[in-house]
Amino acid sequence: MEGWLKETIGRLPDIFRSDVEGLIRDGDFISFAGSYVGELSSLSGPLARIADELGLSGRRKKDAGREPGTERRQRNGAANDHGAAREGETEEAVKLGSDKTSEVDETIKARTNETDQIDEATKLKAKASERLREWLASAYRQAEGGERAAEAGDRLLLADSAAGALELAIRALLLPGDAVLVESPSSPEALWALRRRGAVLVPVQCDRDGMLPDDLRRQLRAAKPALVYVTPLHSTTPSGAVWSQQRMLALLEQCDRHRVPIVEDGTACGVPGFAHAAGRGGEDGPVTAPEGGQVTGGAGPAPARPQGAGVPGPGTASIRAASDSIFSLWLSQAKWRRTSVVLLDSFERAMFPSLPLAWLRGNTAMLARLAAARTEEAGLAPASNQTCLMLYKLLTDDRFSLSEHTAAVLDELNTRRIYMKELLTGREWRKAEVHDPGSGLFLWVRLPEGIVSEALLKASMLEGVAFTPGIRCYAAASEKLKQSPIMEGDWIRLNSAAYPAMGIAEGIARIEDALAEFTARS
C-alpha cells in the first residue's frame, strides 16, 4: 500500500481506522490509489512452467519474489526436517534389523540428492542477478545504439522494487532540508517519499510539453536544488501528454549550467523502452524483430512473426522507445558533463507485477554513490536472487516473446480502462466529468461541484475502497489545479489497471455508495 495512503488511514479517528484496517486484514479493501497493474492471468502459465523447472513447488512458487531471508529460513526449516527424518529412520532400522539398512541407505541417497539440488539452485540464484543485469544491458545497447550508449550499457544497478529504486536514489542524492524541483502535477508516491526524506519540494509550472523553461530557470536560480525529479514519459495529468524532446533538451541545458543532477523516473510508464522491439528470449539479450520479421541479435534465430506482430494497435497505449528518454539524450551528447542523469526503470508496475524488481542507470561515479548509499542505509535491499532467476529464465525462454507479452499487457490495460470508463457513466456520476488520457494506468474524474476529494476519500475508505485525490499529485497543498481549463475543479485519479473487471465493478460501486451519501446530504 502507498505510504501516503497508510498515513491517511493512520490519521482516521480510532473507530473508523479500526473498521478500515479490518477490511484490509480480511482482504476486502480495493485500492485504485496505486501505480501498479493487478495480476495478469497471461503470466500464470509461463511462470508456473519456470517454477517447475527451477524446482519451486507449492508455497515456493507463490512466493517466487520474496526476499532472500525468507527463502533461507524456508530452506533451513526444510533441512532440519530432513535431518530429523533421517535420524528417526536410522533408529527404526536398528530396531528392525539389517533388512532395513538398505532402506536407510536409499533414504540417505535421496536426501543427499535433494541437498545437491538445493546447492545447485543456490549457485544458480547467486549468478542470476549478474546474468539478468547483463541481459538488460544488452537490451539497452540494442535499443539505444551509438558508441556512448554501448559504453553505458553495463552501468546498471538492480534494486528490489520500483519504490526501492526511488528510495535509493533519494538517499544517495539528498540530505534533509535539500530543495528538489518537481513537476506540477507529479507522482504522489514520489512526493511522499521526498517529503519523508525531509526534502523541500519546489513545484515548476508545466504545460502539456513539460516544464516551462522560464519557470525552470527561475526556480533553479532561486531554490538552488540538490536535484530535479521528473517523469517525462509518463503523463501525470488528465490530458495524457508527455514531454516534448525540446523540453527535455531545455532541462538538460539548464541543469548542466547549474550543475544539478536529474532523476528520471521511467518506472511509472510500466513498460521499459526496449520492450516493444524485443522478440523471443536469448541468452545474450532480447532477439529483436524489425520490420519484415527478420530477427537480429540474441542467442540465435527465433521464429519469424508476421510484420507488425507484437506491436499494439491504435487505442491501446503509447510505448516509449528507449532512445526517447532524457537519459538517452544525455548519453548522446558529450557537452552535458556538469550534470548527471539517473534513470529508474522497471518491469514491475505493469509487465511482471508478481516479480518486484527495478534498476538504476547512471555513470560510473553515480552508480558508486548509489551503491554506497545502499551499504550505509538499512532497509535498502538489493534485488532478490530468486526474483532475478525467475525473470532471467522467463526473458531468455525461447517460448516467451517479450514484445508479444507487451502487446497483450497493453491490450489488457486498454480493456480495463474502457470498462472502468463505461462504469463512470452511471447515475451517481452524471454531474462528474471523466477524462481518459487514451493510454496508461489512470482515469481522471472531475467531481461534481461541492464534493471535496479528500472528504470523499475518507467516506470511500469506510466502504472499503480508495483512490488518489488530485491534490495529492501536487507539491504544495495550496497549489490549484488550474494549469489549464481542463484542470479546474476538484479531481480524483483512479487506477483502471489495478483489477480485472469484477474488482473494478465492485470498487466503483463502493465509491458510488459514498457519493450517494454526499448527494443525499447536499
UniProtKB/TrEMBL annotation:
<keyword id="KW-0663">Pyridoxal phosphate</keyword>
<dbReference type="InterPro" id="IPR050859">
    <property type="entry name" value="Class-I_PLP-dep_aminotransf"/>
</dbReference>
<keyword id="KW-0808">Transferase</keyword>
<dbReference type="Pfam" id="PF00155">
    <property type="entry name" value="Aminotran_1_2"/>
</dbReference>
<dbReference type="InterPro" id="IPR004839">
    <property type="entry name" value="Aminotransferase_I/II_large"/>
</dbReference>
<protein>
    <recommendedName>
        <fullName>Aminotransferase class I/classII large domain-containing protein</fullName>
    </recommendedName>
</protein>
<dbReference type="InterPro" id="IPR015422">
    <property type="entry name" value="PyrdxlP-dep_Trfase_small"/>
</dbReference>
<dbReference type="InterPro" id="IPR015421">
    <property type="entry name" value="PyrdxlP-dep_Trfase_major"/>
</dbReference>
<feature type="compositionally biased region" description="Basic and acidic residues">
    <location>
        <begin position="83"/>
        <end position="109"/>
    </location>
</feature>
<keyword id="KW-0032">Aminotransferase</keyword>
<dbReference type="InterPro" id="IPR015424">
    <property type="entry name" value="PyrdxlP-dep_Trfase"/>
</dbReference>
<feature type="compositionally biased region" description="Basic and acidic residues">
    <location>
        <begin position="64"/>
        <end position="74"/>
    </location>
</feature>
<feature type="domain" description="Aminotransferase class I/classII large">
    <location>
        <begin position="107"/>
        <end position="265"/>
    </location>
</feature>
<feature type="region of interest" description="Disordered">
    <location>
        <begin position="280"/>
        <end position="315"/>
    </location>
</feature>
<feature type="region of interest" description="Disordered">
    <location>
        <begin position="58"/>
        <end position="109"/>
    </location>
</feature>
